[in-house]
Amino acid sequence: MDFRFDAEDEAFRREIRAFLASEWSGGTGDAAVDSEEEYEAERAFEKKLAQRGWLTLAWPVEYGGQGATNVRQAIMKEECSYARAPIGGGPGGQATGLVGPAVMAHGTEEQKQRFLPPIAAGDVSWCQGFSEPDAGSDLAAVQTQAVRDGDSYVLNGHKVWTSGAAYADWIHVLARTDPDAPKHKGISYLLVDMKSPGISHTPIQEMTGRSGFYETHFDDVAVPATNLLGEENRGWYVATTTLGFERSGIARVGAITRSFDDLVAHLSGQTSPALRHKLTEHRIEIEVARWLAYRVAWMQDHALAPTYEASLSKLYATEVAQRLANTAVNALGLRGMLDLDSYRAAMDGLPAFTYLLTMHWTISAGTSEIQRNIMAQRGFGLPRE
C-alpha cells in the first residue's frame, strides 16, 4: 500500500475543504436524522455534492459517477465527516455507500438503470431494514417473511434500529422467503418503497435524547418481484456486500479526528503531563485508524477483497472513538458531562453528546465481537469452535 496521496488527490482535498467551509456548518456528528429541518438541510447539501459529481465519485460514469478511485471517494467522506456533514442518501451514506454498490454488484440492468441515477443525483434517501428484535448480531436469524404471490412478494414482519425511517424514500430489506432452508440460505433481499401501504414506523428514544432510529412494521406490504435484488433465497450473499461497505467507511475516522482537534483547541495547552501523554496516545490511534480505513479503499482500487480488513477498520475505529470520548469527558470535569447547549456546558455539550453517541458505534453494523470472529476466521483461518 502506498501511504502517500498523489497531487490530484491533495488538490481535491483542498477543494472539498473550501466547499465545506462555504456550504455547511453545524451538525452533531450523529448520522441519524432527528427532525424535518435536519432532513431538508442534509438533502439540500447532498444535492450540491451531486451537482459537482462528488456524491458518487467512484461509481462508473454510466451510472452517474466519475469513475474516480475509491481512495478519492474516501477523501471526500473523510472531509465531510470531519465537518459533521452528511455523506450520501440517508444515514451513514445508505444510498451511495451500501445500496448503490449492492445494486451494481447484484442487480439486473433494469434495476441499475432504475435505482442508480436517482441516487447519483441526490434525489432519493434510503434506510436499512436488517436488524430485528431477535436478529441483531445473529442477522441470519431474521424472521420477517416475504411470500411470493404472483408478481409480488407479500412482506410481513418487524424491523428495529431503522435509521431515518420517517424521512426515507426507500428501504432495503432482508426477509425470509424459505422458512425450511438453513437460516443463511432462505433469505432474500428486497428493495421496498417506503410509501407502500402497510408500512409504519415508531421512533426509538435514544440515550442522547434524539430519536433518529425507528421500529418499522410491515403488514401485508406488496413488493413487486422486480424489486428482488439478486436471486431468491440468496439474499444473505447480497447482504454481505452491503455489510462490507458499511464496515469499511472512513467516515468514523473523520468524526474522531474532529473530536480530537476540537478538544485540543479547547484545552489550549492547559493540560497535565499525564493528559498530554493520553492525548498523544489517542492521536497515534487515530492515525492508525485512518490508514486502516484507507487500506480498505486502496484494496478496492486494486480489485482485492477486504474479507477481514473492513472488520478490522470498523472494530479499531469505533473502539478508539469510545476511548477518546471517555478521555474528553474526564478531562473537562463536571462541565464536560453537560448535554448539548446546556448552561455552562463545555464545548456546547458536544463531548457529553459524543460520549453517548459512540456507545452504539461498537454495536451497529456488527458488534465488536462479530468483527473479531470475522477477523479470526477469515484473517487467521481459525475454526468457528
Poorly predicted regions are none
- Class per helix and strand makeup: alpha+beta
Number of domains: 3
Name the CATH class of the largest domain: Mainly Alpha
Secondary structure elements and pairings:
Elements: H1 7-23, H2 36-51, H3 70-82, H4 94-106, H5 109-120, E1 126-129, E2 145-149, E3 152-159, E4 170-176, E5 187-193, E6 199-204, E7 213-224, E8 228-229, H6 235-247, H7 251-267, H8 273-301, H9 309-332, H10 350-357, H11 368-379
Parallel strand pairs: 1-4
Antiparallel strand pairs: 2-3, 3-7, 4-5, 5-8, 6-7
Q: How would you portray this structure in words?
A:
There is one protein chain. With 385 residues, the chain is of the alpha+beta class. It folds into 3 domains: 7-125, Butyryl-Coa Dehydrogenase, subunit A, domain 1 (Orthogonal Bundle); 128-233, Butyryl-CoA Dehydrogenase, subunit A, domain 2 (Beta Barrel); 248-379, Butyryl-CoA Dehydrogenase, subunit A, domain 3 (Up-down Bundle). Helix content is 45%, strand content 13%. It has 11 helices and 8 strands. A 4-stranded mixed beta sheet has the order 1-4-5-8. Strands 2-3-7-6 form a 4-stranded antiparallel beta sheet, with no helix packed on it. Strand 2 and strand 3 (152-159) form a beta hairpin. Helix 9 (309-332) runs antiparallel to helix 11 (368-379). The longest helix has 29 residues, at 273-301. It is globular and about 70 Å long.
